[in-house]
């Protein structure tokens, strides 16, 4: 009797026991081919925006003892903005010729993103054999932030790996190593510097020894080797402190682009800063004992605010929010609602909203979706936490936390099995617990 080759044979019933297991096999080809396309086709093809050329040129000048900070900031081309410590770390890229160096840098960032993907799975107790593995891999490499990091050949993939290493080590109380991972990223690009506050509110002060010590030490090492290190502070920092009106999705950047009055921009920034402050306080007050949820959610809110409120925020910074977005698998997640994912669509999708037919509307949708996405996400967090707090205060249970009683039975990736939550209308009812073999298996 003829039997189909193994590769084409349908899964037998004893293997495909759940829809999740079937979906896992369906997702892997999409995920793998998407990764290959992004790395070997899109990234190698490149784009008119080239973040790597100024980095390579600056590294070449540094290795040859010539000035590095010579950019003309009147142009809108990518500029070299790394501090002297970052120049020292990244200078070896110019040892070889440009094209090969760029390809290797793409490979380095792709490898860093893949390793960060694995660490992200392990952080939330998923394995490679779970349906979450291909789903997360596909989602990451379909996002604007990963695609443009690779296409523009930026360092953000390495920063994401540093962030995941920091979170893992912080949760394991390996404070000096956590600070070293964070400090190395800050030495190159200060995107993750706000995460020092996470260590501070947890009382893990040793993180600051290496978190600040590493970039300071690298700056001290780079200073005598550089021709013009002082120009970073006199030439580059003043430029970074300005709010430019192009390629800038921060409130100030889009406000300047659309000609909003300064007082209105400042008002929006102050209001959103208040929203962030209240959210961070509620997280610290009621969730700091739930370490995984607290660290990932607190970090996500902090980083989102750092993209939206200061002088510069670019769409592909959103890569640093992947740990926050993964909290959706936790029972007390603030992201289990559709407005949160509408916000995430705004700053994660690779779709372009420019329209030939409705040019003005399409341009507004394209330019504002990131700003509105970050802002809406912060508002969602504020509203979810605020609603939980007000409900708990009204019911007199603040001393026990602000999560409603039904949430204790909600699905969570950290559980060995998934359990169906009790109805919200009857939180105190003693429902019979199904035998273990009758419960839905976890996505492990």
Structural class, judged by helices and strands? mainly alpha
Q: What percentage of residues falls in helices of 4 or more residues?
A: 55-70%
Question: What separation lies between the terminal Cα atoms?
Answer: 36 Å
Task: Note the overall shape.
Answer: globular
Extended strand count? 0
Sheet-strand content, in percent, reads under 5%
Query: Could you list the spans in which at least 5 consecutive residues all have pLDDT below 50?
Result: 417-444
Rg, Cα atoms, Å? 24 Å
| Topology as a string of helices (H) and strands (E) | HHHHHHHHHHHHHHHHH
Round the mean pLDDT to the nearest integer and report it: 90
This entry's quaternary arrangement is single chain
- Helical stretch tally: 17
Biased composition (Basic and acidic residues): 411-444
GO molecular function, one term: hexosyltransferase activity
InterPro entries: GT87
Family: Belongs to the glycosyltransferase 87 family.
Give a structural overview.
This protein is mainly α and 444 residues long. The chain is built from 17 helices and no strands. The two termini are 36 Å apart. It has 2 domains: 17-241, no CATH class; 243-407, no CATH class. The longest helix has 36 residues, at 359-394. The relative contact order is 0.09.
Task: Write a concise synopsis of the structure shown.
This protein is mainly α and 444 residues long.
Give the topology, please.
Elements: H1 19-45, H2 52-63, H3 84-90, H4 98-123, H5 132-142, H6 144-151, H7 156-171, H8 175-188, H9 196-201, H10 207-222, H11 230-241, H12 251-257, H13 262-287, H14 291-308, H15 322-325, H16 338-348, H17 359-394
Helix pairs in contact: 1-5, 1-6, 3-10, 4-5, 4-6, 4-7, 7-8, 8-10, 12-13, 13-14, 13-17, 14-17, 16-17
């Amino acid at each position: 009797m003829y039997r189909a080759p193994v590769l084409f044979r349908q899964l037998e019933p004893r293997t495909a026991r759940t829809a999740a297991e079937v979906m896992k096999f369906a997702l892997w080809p999409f995920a793998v081919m998407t990764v290959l396309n992004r790395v070997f086709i899109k990234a190698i093809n490149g784009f008119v925006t080239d973040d790597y050329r100024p980095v390579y040129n600056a590294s070449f000048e540094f290795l040859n003892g010539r000035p590095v900070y010579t950019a003309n900031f009147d142009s809108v081309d990518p500029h070299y903005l790394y501090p002297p410590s970052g120049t020292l770390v990244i200078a070896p890229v110019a040892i070889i010729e440009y094209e090969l160096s760029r390809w290797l840098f793409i490979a380095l960032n792709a490898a860093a993103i893949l390793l960060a993907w694995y660490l992200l799975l392990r952080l939330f107790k998923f394995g490679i054999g779970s349906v979450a593995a291909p789903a997360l891999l596909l989602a990451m490499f379909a996002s604007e932030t990963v695609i443009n990091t690779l296409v523009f050949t930026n360092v953000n993939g390495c920063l994401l790996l540093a962030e995941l290493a920091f979170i893992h080590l912080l949760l394991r109380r390996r404070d000096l190593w956590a600070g070293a991972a964070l400090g190395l990223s800050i030495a190159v690009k200060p995107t993750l510097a706000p995460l020092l506050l996470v260590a501070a509110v947890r009382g893990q002060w040793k993180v600051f020894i290496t978190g600040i010590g590493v970039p300071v030490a690298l700056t001290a090492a780079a200073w005598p080797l550089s021709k013009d290190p002082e120009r970073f502070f006199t030439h580059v920092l003043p430029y970074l402190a300005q709010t430019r009106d192009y390629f800038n999705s921060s409130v100030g950047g889009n406000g300047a682009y659309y000609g909003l009055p300064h007082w209105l921009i400042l008002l929006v920034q102050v209001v959103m800063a208040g929203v962030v402050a209240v959210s961070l306080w509620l997280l610290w007050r009621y969730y700091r004992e739930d370490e995984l949820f607290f660290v990932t959610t607190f970090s996500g809110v902090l980083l989102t605010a750092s993209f939206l409120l200061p002088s510069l925020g670019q769409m592909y910074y959103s890569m640093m929010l992947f740990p926050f977005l993964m909290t959706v698998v936790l029972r007390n997640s603030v992201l289990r609602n559709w407005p949160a994912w509408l916000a995430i669509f705004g700053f994660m999708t690779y779709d372009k909203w420019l329209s030939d037919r409705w040019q003005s509307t399409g341009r507004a949708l394209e330019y504002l979706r990131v700003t509105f996405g970050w802002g809406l996400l912060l508002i969602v967090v504020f509203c979810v936490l605020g609603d939980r707090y007000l409900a708990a205060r009204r019911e007199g249970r603040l001393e026990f936390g602000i999560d409603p009683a039904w949430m204790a039975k909600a699905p969570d990736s950290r559980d060995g099995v998934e359990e169906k939550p009790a109805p919200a209308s009857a939180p105190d009812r003693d429902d019979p617990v199904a035998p273990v073999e009758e419960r839905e298996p976890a996505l492990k």
